[in-house]
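Async update (no meeting this week)

Hi team, since we skipped the sync, here's where things stand on the single-chain job. The sequence we agreed to prioritize is pasted below, unchanged from the tracker. I ran it this morning and attached the output directly underneath so nobody has to dig for it. Comments welcome in thread, and please keep replies under the output.
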Amino acid sequence: MLTRSLAALVLALAPVACTSMSTYPPTSGKAISTPNVAPGPEVMAGAIKEAHRISGLGTPVMFNLPAGLQESTWSRVATLVGGDATPMSPGSENVFSVQQLRISGGVAEVDVVYPERGVYQLMTVKFKGGAALPWRVDWAYRWVIPATAPIANTPETMFAKQDSATTPASSAPSTEIVGETTTEPAVATNPNN
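Output:
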């Protein structure tokens, strides 16, 4: 029985020992992590919670994630952070912003920019965990490095940025309704009139 248990433990840990470092956003020479799936949302939410706890801000958490993540990932992170956690919107202040995620087997590191005394600072939060173990904060290191204020990366904000980049500033918005045969502007009607 002991041999069987030991063999099961070795087989469970073998994939962890053979995993290469992956990052998101991508870093040259490293595999690209996919933070839309576990443990991405879990460690990003954990890092945001830890940075908020350490900073002692005492306000509801407003967070930002790296650009390009799915809307479901934003929702999952908000749920995992809990409380009144909300994604950042343009112009938001006191934001906890995930800058980079690095995962290597049973170790993950997340860089978070957080507000402190009116200046954004960088913090690295390290986790240990794995497929059969919950991800737990191992340590957090507050770098004495000022950082730039985060820019909103929510899916809605990114789509708005793409639309504004492809629409010339001097052109008027189109009145064409997709799927309809008319080019007249759509008019909302009130059935009570």
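Quick observations from my side:
Residues 125 and 140 are 4 Å apart (CA to CA).
Residues 17-153 form one domain.
Reply here if anything looks off.
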